[in-house]
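User: For a reading group we're discussing how well predicted structures match intuition. Take YtzH-like protein. Before you show the prediction, I'll give you the sequence so everyone sees exactly what went in.
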Amino acid sequence: MPLGHQDQMNLLKDILTNHYDDCCGSVAECEQLERLVKSLMVNSQIGDGVKPILQEIYNYSQNGINSPNLDHHINSQKENLSQWVQDMDTLS
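Assistant: Thanks. Here is the predicted 3D structure of YtzH-like protein, as structure tokens, for the group to look at:
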């Protein structure tokens, strides 16, 4: 059974929160973020206010996948991780 858009948003926020809390992550998590964002971007139930945030998260995941030091990449985005989760809570 596929995840609904709210479940996808919750999963997205969970991964971002884990990256924020743990200051580390995996390429597989970045790939999961990428898949979630792609799915949410084409979902008509997602408000236009969330889409710029999703684009930023997509860029974050792409840079993480291609980063030679993923933990450093996550640490350098720590402020954004927190802000994205807060913004998604406000807008969704």
